[in-house]
Each structure stands twice: as structure tokens, then as C-alpha cells.
Amino acid sequence: MYNDSSSLVTIDELCEILMIGKNTAYSLLKSGAIKSFKINRIWKIPRSSIDDYITNKIKQN
């Protein structure tokens, strides 16, 4: 069974990690720039998706 709860973050944690507002965070999730999923009405974001997003942003610059 998979028990590493630290590998999933919430929208609030995403905002803290990237230092962005909630509107920007929701836009990134809805556009698919950061892969995520919803359980009921709660967004769950794999930490690896955030790492991939940051890596891609660095490569673009």
C-alpha cells in the first residue's frame, strides 16, 4: 500500500511552494501545466508534478 502522504500537496501548499496566489495556482492546475487530480472537491497535487513544472520553467529560460 502507498503511504507517503508527503508526496501529495494541497492547493495552499502549492501556493507556498511556488510563492503564487490561489488564482494563479488554479489556472496552472486547470490548464494542465501542473498535473493534478481532485478527490471530491479537493485538489491533490503530486510533488513530482511540481518538481517537473519547476524543471521545465528553468529549461525555458
TrEMBL record:
One GO MF term: DNA binding
Domain Helix-turn-helix, chain residue ranges per copy: 8-56
A matching Pfam family: HTH_17
InterPro entries on file: HTH_17, SinI_DNA-bd
Signal peptide: none
Protein known as: DNA binding domain, excisionase family
